[in-house]
Amino acid sequence: MKRRLNLLCAGVLVALAFVPGDFVVATASAADTSVEAPKAGWYSQLVDADFVAKYAVLPKPDGVQIIDSRPATRKFDPGHIPTAMNLHDGDFDKLADQLPTDKATLLIFYCEGVDCMLSHNSAFKAEKLGYTNIKVYAGGYPEWIKKGNMGAVSLPFLKKKLDEGAPLTLVDSRPKERKFDKGHIPGAVNIPDGDFDKMVDRLPADKASPLYFYCEGLSCKLSSDSAVKAVKLGYTQVKVVPEGYPGWVKLYGAGPTTGAPAAKVVIQTTADKDAIAIASFEKILKEASDSVFLVDVRDPAEFALGTFKGAINMPVATVEKRAGELPTDKPVIFFCSAGGRSGDALDKARKANPKIKAYFLDANVKWTKDGSYAITEN
To answer: Where are the domains of the chain?
Structure first.
């Protein structure tokens, strides 16, 4: 009888290990799932990562709010549990009005792990405000990631990275015609979740490249579904942007639309009518970068070391296959580090997509990680 019970328990544990989750991308061992024993000064109602995972899903569940008690810029913005709101414990009293009005709402506080008291401090403060269903996830964000769960980034963090021209791939998981074409975050590549398997070639070849997925906000799960698929393909730097395009519009205004008239731009060429003049290129970068579509045709490893703000990475070997991604409503400018690969990319792109209006930069270019660059004639 005892052996039967042991076998039954083992079977149940095996079955549970295969229960799917929106943001779980690795399976934790049984030893990793225990709740931390309360320590001096801790809030008594503790939960583990499995408990939190039930609520860190999209669409965001009603009646619960996950709260990150860490500082925004240094901690929350670059990585947090999906659907969490940021309410830094140091600013708790000033930000308490952001908490749910229903005092019966399940509040789950977390911070930077077992040595961090911010979440416990905030939990006690929330209790004094009359909240009746409060938990603390003592393992916090470090443990959440260690257990293989998906992380999220804030929109301010994403915008900063985009403004810096940081090497990343931003993926809009929404349908193309109904959503993406009508407005999207600048620089995003459209890979609708329903077509993910057919369009994986649009993802970077380098599996260590940062990937950020977004869709229609906290009520949309397309981005989280696509992010999990990307992890299964072997990508190691994958995060979601839960607030998505609606959040972007609220903070920064509407993004570009596909097919919308591009701003007028005058492109001056060299003796080779396909090559944009250096002075013309630099003027566009400084004054009207949104009026052109910049394509860096170098290898991903080179791209990661620095590129022009707003450029996408499309290695020259992939240009012919990916030419359909290039816009026809604004000029496309291909560039590399010396002009050879960019000229080759131009020829391949025109052959595959004759509708594009394209040029290449025939010059020597050197970048630094801080975003600065130097362009000299060949």
So the answer is: 32-146, 153-252, 278-377
